[in-house]
């Protein structure tokens, strides 16, 4: 992450990290390689993930999806968490 980006994010509002386990991310990647050229190979994708993870974990709010939780339920849970921050 560029040094100034963290400050820009902080000033813009609340940062959120959706903490999806690497195994799930890797499972989703094969169909996205054309859309995500930096990922290239599975090894490169893991390398990028590992490099970026400390920055992601510095988010104001971290939410880990629960097994079987759909996007709508996760969004609702996140909305409640964010509401509590106001």
Structural commentary:
The protein has four helices and two strands, in the order αβααβα. With 86 residues, the protein is mainly α. The chain has one domain: P-loop containing nucleotide triphosphate hydrolases (Rossmann fold). Strands 1-2 form a two-stranded parallel ribbon. The radius of gyration is 15 Å and the shape is flat.
What is the element layout, followed by pairings?
Layout: H1 3-12, E1 16-18, H2 22-28, H3 42-57, E2 61-63, H4 71-83
Key terms for this structure?
two-stranded parallel sheet; 86 residues; single chain; mainly alpha; 2 strands
CATH architecture: 3-Layer(aba) Sandwich
* Helix-strand string: HEHHEH
Name of the CATH class: Alpha Beta
CATH topology: Rossmann fold
Kindly report the name of the CATH homologous superfamily. P-loop containing nucleotide triphosphate hydrolases
Biggest sheet: strands, sense, closure? 2 strands, parallel
Query: How many strand segments?
Result: 2
- Major beta sheet, strand line-up: 1-2
Give me the number of helical elements.
4
Give the C-alpha Rg.
15 Å
Helix content: 40-55%
Provide a brief overview of the structure.
Helix content is 53%, strand content 7%.
């Amino acid at each position: 992450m560029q040094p100034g980006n963290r400050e820009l994010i902080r000033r813009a509002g609340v940062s959120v990290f959706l903490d999806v386990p690497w195994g799930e991310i890797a499972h989703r990647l094969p169909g996205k390689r054309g859309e995500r050229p930096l990922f290239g190979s599975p090894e490169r994708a893991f390398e990028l993930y590992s490099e970026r993870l400390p920055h992601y974990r510095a988010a104001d709010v971290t939410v880990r999806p629960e097994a079987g939780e759909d996007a709508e339920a996760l969004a609702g849970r996140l909305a409640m968490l964010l509401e509590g921050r106001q």
